Amino acid sequence: MSLCINPHCQNPENSDSLLRCQSCGSELLLEGRYRVMCLLGEGGFAKTYEVSDRTSIPKVLKVLGKNQPKPVEQFQREAQVLIRLNHPGIPQGEEYFTFFPQNSQEAVHCLVMEKIEGENLQEWLKNRNNRPISEKLAVDWLTQLANTLHEVHQQQLIHRDIKPSNIMLNLDGQLVLIDFGIAREITETYEQKQAAGQGTRVVSDGYSPLEQVNGRAVPQSDFFALGRTFVHLLTGIHPLDLCDPYRHDIYTDELENWRDKASQISSLLADFIDQLMGRPINKRPPDTQTILQQLIEIDQTLHPRRLSRPKPSNPLTTLSGQNISLERTLSNWYSSGHSGTVWSVAISPDGQTLVSSSLDNTIKVWNLNTDEEIYTLSEDSDGVYAVAISPNGQTFVSGSNNGKIKVWDLTTGEEIYTLNGHFSQVNALTFSTDGEILVSASEDSTIKVWKIQ
Length: 453
Fold this sequence. Notes:
This protein is α+β, with helices and mostly antiparallel strands and about 450 residues long. It folds into three domains: about 1-115, Phosphorylase Kinase, domain 1 (2-Layer Sandwich); about 120-300, Transferase(Phosphotransferase) domain 1 (Transferase(Phosphotransferase), domain 1, Orthogonal Bundle), CATH 1.10.510.10; about 320-450, Methylamine Dehydrogenase, Chain H. Helices cover about 25% and strands about 25% of the residues. The chain contains nine helices and 26 strands. It has a six-stranded antiparallel β-sheet with strand order 3-4-5-6-8-7, with helices on one face.
C-alpha cells in the first residue's frame, strides 16, 4: 500500500504501482524516491510515517500538520540539527523538503530520518509497572546520554527538553535522544537576547530548571533535566509527584526525599544526581567531559575490575636482531614529548614512524631514524588512549575518552573520517592483517568490529 500525505485527501490509500493518488492526484513518490507505507504515529503537531526507498535502510517521514510560523520554525530547526549531527545516540536526519499537494500552493513540510525501533523510556517504564531501574543500568544509561549530550553541546546546541518521553530505547539497548524541535544554538544573538530578558520560555514541568523557566537556558540546564529524568527512572515516580505543590515550589525547591524511594542505589550515585540538579547553576558540573569522568570513577568504584596477577617474564632486549636503546629514547625525546601520561604507541610497518598518544589530548608522530617530531595533533577529548597504524602504513586510527575513533592520513595528519559507536573511553585498537577490519575495545564493555573503507 502507498499512502497519500495530502492533508485534505479523502481516500489516501493507494496501490504501490501508482505514481499519483487515485483520489486527489497528488504525487505518491515523494522527491522521486520516497514511498509512504503506513502511519506510525500522530502527535500534536506532526504525523510520522514509515517510508521506503531504493535502499533497504528503515526510514521514517515526519510530516508537519500545522503551517503556522512557530511550528514551521521549530520543525525546520529540528531538521537542521538532525541532518547536521552524526552520533549513534541521535536519529540521523537524511533530507528536509516541502511537498505541494495537487492544486495547492500551501507547502507540507517533511523530514526523512532514521527509523528508531523501540519505545521511549516513559512507555518502557510504564510497561514494567513503573519498577525502578537498577544502579548498574542507571550508570550505563547516564554514560550513554552524557556522550550524546557531549556531541550536542560540542555543536553549540542546547536540547532544552530532556525527559523520559524524549529518550528512545532501541532494540540493541542504545538510548537515542529525540525531539530537537526546541533545541537552540548558542550564538551571540541568543546570549544577547538572554541578557536582555528576551529568551524563549520552554518548559517541561518537573524536568526543566528555573533558569529555563525564565527563558535563560544554558548547557547546564540539560544536566538538570538529565538528573530529574534519572530521579524518575530510579524511583518510578514522576518528579512532580515527589514535590508537594502546597508546600513547595517545583522550580525553586528540592525534590522531597527522592533518595528514600531509590534505596537500591548508593549514596555515591545519589550525590552525583543531586549535583546534576544543583542550584544555583554553578553547583552543577561545568561540562559533559566532567560528567563522563565522574561516571567512569563511579563505575570503577561500584564495579571494580578484577585483575589477574601477571606472569613474570624476561625483558625484551632485541627487535628484528637490533638492540633497543632505551637510554637514547628517554634522553632525546623527554624535553619535546607529551605533557601528560603516554597511553599508547604504534610503529609503522616499515619501522620508520612512531605514533604516540597521551592524556594531554595530543597525538604525536615521530621519525624513528632522526628522533624528530614530525607533527602534533590536538584532540577535543579528555585524553587519547589508543592508536594503531594500518598494515599498509598509509593511515592510523586513534581512540579517545569520548568514545570516538578517528581515522587519519599518516603522511599529512589530516582527519579522514570519524567512527561513532562507543559511549565511553576507547582502550584498544587493532587492524586485521589485510587492513580491511578494525577492532576496538572500550570502557563501555563492548568490542566493535569495523569495516574500514
